[in-house]
Amino acid sequence: MFIAHLPAGYLWTRYLLRRRFATDVRSSLYRKLMALGLAGSLLPDVDMLYFYLIDNRQHLHHGYWTHIPLYWLALFIMSLLAGRIFDKPSLRPAAAVLFSNVLIHLVLDTVVGKVRWFAPFSGHDFMLFEVPARHGWWVWNFMFHWTILLELALVIAAVVTFLISRRTLVAAKS
User: Fold this and answer.
1) In this structure, how many other beta carbons lie within 10 angstroms of the beta carbon of residue 70?
2) Mapped to the 3 state alphabet, what secondary structure does 112-148 carry?
3) Model confidence over 129-148: pLDDT tens digits?
4) pLDDT tens-place string over residues 15-42
5) C-alpha distances out from residue 159 to 6, 20, 69, 71, 118, Å
6) Cβ(44)–Cβ(93) under 8 Å?
7) Helices 148-173 and 5-15 meet at what angle, rounded to 10?
8) CB-facing half-sphere around the CA of 115: CA atoms within 13 A
9) Closest to 118 measured CA to CA, from 110, 166, 167
10) Phi, psi of 113 (to 5 degrees)
């Protein structure tokens, strides 16, 4: 996925905050958790820095530890335990928002990218659809594959949802 991680993160975090945590959109908690959710939706791709700057594009970046679901599950469990040990109940919604967005990122990457869902116990790469190499520049292969329509649908849904929520907020202030 190229353009859908952030929009999907926005849609999911908005849903989670409104339905699960009943957070008011005008509160500072909502803004903080939304920022955390958006960061989580992009967090696994922080490995792109290593991919380009250090690894010199030697290995597919989905093979790095930031794309290993078990790693994120372990961090999620440790953060919940830390919240309980240090009596920080606010850590629970923050961890849920962050790590659920990381999980959504990995699910989206599984559509046309390779994700090792059972690593380190298995090196099997999972992907739903293979994108054939038909164009000279690798990006075009993804841009002209039918799965880009899924990404565009997420982008449009996020933009429409954002505009409607802004309109509702402005109307409520009046």
Assistant:
1) 14
2) HCCECCCCCCCCCCECCCCCCCCCCCHHHHHHCCCCH
3) 999 999 999 889 999 999 99
4) 999 988 877 888 899 999 999 999 999 9
5) 11, 22, 28, 32, 34
6) no
7) 50
8) 25
9) 110
10) -115, 170
Contacts of 156 by beta carbon, 8 Å cutoff, 6+ apart: none
Token pair for 156: 């449009």
User: Residue 104 class from Cβ within 10 Å (0-12 exposed, 13-18 middle, 19+ buried)?
Assistant: buried
pLDDT tens-digit readout, 88-100:
998 999 999 999 9
Task: Measure the CA–CA gap between 142 and 134, rounded to whole angstroms.
Answer: 10
What is the secondary structure of the chain as a DSSP string?
--SSHHHHHHHHHHHIIIIIS---TTSHHHHHHHHHHHHHHHGGGGHHHHHHHTSTT-S-GGGSGGG-HHHHHHHHHHHHHHHHHTT-TTHHHHHHHHHHHHHHHHHHHHHHS-B-TTTTT----B-S------SSSHHHHHHTSTTHHHHHHHHHHHHHHHHHHHHHHHHHH-
CA dihedral 65, 71, 73, 77 (to 10 degrees): -140
